[in-house]
Specification:
With 176 residues, the protein is mainly β. It folds into 2 domains: 38 residues, no CATH class; 131 residues, Alpha-Beta Complex (Nucleoside Triphosphate Pyrophosphohydrolase), CATH 3.90.79. It has 2 helices and 10 strands, in the order βββββββαβββα. A hairpin with a 2-residue loop joins strand 8 and strand 9.
Length: 176
């Protein structure tokens, strides 16, 4: 297994090329002593439901997994809480304004982007929107659709953590 920082060859603090493996999740600079830890990035997933008990599902417009199903969400920005991040991502990708958010569970994931494996911690939230009738697929989303929980097929989702999240939802007997 490759070290998660194998693409990082220079110390981000001093620029030295003496930036070597320290342990399984960090590199250390042999010149200035700086240690960089590779920790997961925070990402959010919105499980939006309507009054029919259906879940809002997106189709990915971009790689990775372009064309497969997904749940709306994305990376948290700096200085943003996970709740603020899921609200922002849902508004960017669907046009929905979220009035209620409830944390459900988290799943570690590896998200391949620009030739690099980004380790993420995907935080799943049950989200209730003000008005679910005003959907607009935008940003990273090609289309949106409502699907009943019992009709969801995890194999149709392109990202591993989302597939696992769908399976966990179905195991909960379709209750949110």
């Amino acid at each position: 297994m490759r070290h998660p920082l194998h693409l990082f060859n220079y110390c981000p603090k001093c620029g030295s090329d003496k930036f070597t493996e320290n342990d399984f999740k960090s590199k250390r600079c042999g010149d200035c002593g700086f240690v960089y830890y590779f920790n997961p990035l925070a990402a959010t997933v919105g499980i939006v439901t309507n009054d029919k008990g259906e879940i809002l599902v997106a189709r990915r417009a971009k790689e990775p997994a372009k064309g497969t199903l997904d749940l709306p969400g994305g990376f948290c920005d700096s200085y943003e809480t996970a709740e603020e991040g899921v609200r922002r991502e849902l508004e960017e990708e669907t046009g929905l304004k979220i009035k209620e958010i409830r944390y459900m569970f988290s799943i570690p994931n590896i998200y391949c982007y620009s030739g690099m494996e980004l380790h993420t911690m995907d935080l799943f939230f049950h989200c209730i929107a003000d008005d679910t009738g005003t959907l607009v697929a935008d940003d990273d989303v090609a289309e949106l659709q409502w699907i009943a929980i019992d009709k969801l097929q995890s194999k149709d989702f392109g990202l591993a953590s989302i597939r696992k999240g769908i399976e966990m939802l179905k195991e909960k007997n379709n209750t949110l």
